[in-house]
Amino acid sequence: MRLDRGYVPGVSTTGTAPAPTIPLQNGARIPRLGLGTWPMDDREAEQAVAQAIGLGYRLIDTAFNYGNETGVGRGIAASGVPREELFVTTKLNKEDHGVDEAQRAFERSATKLDVDYIDLLLIHWPNPAQDRYVDAYRGLVRLLEDGRVSAIGLSNFKPAHVDRVIEATGVVPDVDQIELDPTRPRPQERAYLRGKDVVCQSWSPLGGRHAGLREHPVVAEIAQKRGRTPGQIVLRWHLELGCVPIPKSADAERQRQNLEVFDFSLSQDDLARLATLDRGGEGITDSDAFGH
Ligand SMILES: NC(=O)c1ccc[n+]([C@@H]2O[C@H](COP(=O)([O-])OP(=O)(O)OC[C@H]3O[C@@H](n4cnc5c(N)ncnc54)[C@H](OP(=O)(O)O)[C@@H]3O)[C@@H](O)[C@H]2O)c1
Predict the structure, then answer these.
(1) How far apart are CA 73 and CA 5, in angstroms?
(2) pLDDT tens digit string along 61-111?
(3) Whole-structure pTM value
(4) Among candidates 108, 162, 119, which has minimal Cα distance to 144?
(5) Does residue 287's CB lie within 6 angstroms of at least one atom of ligand 1?
(6) What is the layout of strands, in order, in the sheet containing 244-245?
(7) Is 192 a residue of the active site?
(8) Rounded to an integer, what distance in angstroms lies between the CA atom of residue 190 and that of residue 238?
């Protein structure tokens, strides 16, 4: 498929260099790190998004469910950075699982965001109990074919869910956004996604609102050794795995730190130390049981 618009990597004139990009299955490119916006409200999102883009962020992650797409759109407009240099992700809810419903969800989110195309549209949760995610995905494929979105994907889909959408449509998703951090490293899921060339995107990459991971002694020790912050060590772990983390912060200094992770790497020894944090599957939200 030929893309005649969509994300074009640019340069930052104000802050840290934008993250490098990687190619996606259906022809677009995605920045290797972005800004999460949950649980910001419209007002906070507007300020945090404009600030982050000024610092060099180019990927912004939102969702209809977050109730802040209007604020995200205002932040994008206030940033002054051309639309084509930004990569905007949003997600649709279980009420939108259907071919026509997905089209309507696109229109609704695009209107709130005040954009005429969306870079990446995701199905937020599979909700297998209602068994309509395959139709929702058919709706995304149509939006991709119509050029309304540059990339399509899934979130919280297990390998069996991903297999089903590929079998039904023959179209491989660009991304699966899953809950991932060193305590929940999910090696089987990541290997599955890698095998299909689906980019793994990490939500709650810093372990979420609880500071436990960021204060873990192993993380602190590696941070001290490398002269980095604990958050930077954790974000670098995602990059070493080939995943795209979307850390959330509204704070300018933490946003800056979170983006400055492309000028160092972790050693095999660091990675082996971080592997000891694995809680063996404990604490992963079960998307067969939960979703909206
Ligand atoms: N697909 C899904 O189902 C799903 C589910 C949940 C989240 N998400 C997405 O993923 C994004 C990230 O996940 P998340 O917000 O749950 O968790 P997260 O990014 O792992 O952690 C956010 C928390 O870490 C703090 N923080 C950020 N940078 C820091 C730093 N450098 N040092 C110390 N603390 C730092 C933030 O506080 P401050 O803001 O005060 O800095 C906030 O409390 C969300 O915003 C959302 O866009 C997707």
Answers:
(1) 19
(2) 999 999 999 999 999 999 999 999 999 999 999 999 999 999 999 999 999
(3) 0.96
(4) 119
(5) no
(6) 35-36, 59-61, 87-92, 118-123, 149-155, 175-179, 199-203, 244-245
(7) no
(8) 11
Integer Cα distance of 229 and 231 in angstroms = 5
135-145: per-residue pLDDT in tens?
999 999 999 99
Query: Is the CB of 155 within 6 Å of ligand 1?
Result: yes
**What token pair was written down for 205?**
């990459």
Q: 87-92 and 35-36 as β-strands: parallel, antiparallel, unpaired? A: unpaired
Hey, what domains does the chain have and what are their CATH numbers?
21-275 (3.20.20.100)
What's the CA-to-centroid distance between 241 and ligand 1, angstroms? 19
DSSP H helices in the chain? 42-55, 69-79, 99-113, 133-145, 159-169, 187-195, 217-226, 230-240, 252-259, 268-275
Question: Which tens digits make up the pLDDT trace of 10-59?
Answer: 766 667 788 999 999 999 999 999 999 999 999 999 999 999 999 999 99
Match 């932040």 to its residue by tokens: 75
> How many angstroms separate the Cα of 158 from the Cα of each of 126, 163, 188, 221, 286?
9, 9, 10, 33, 9
Q: Which of 7, 57, 66, 137 is catalytic?
A: 66
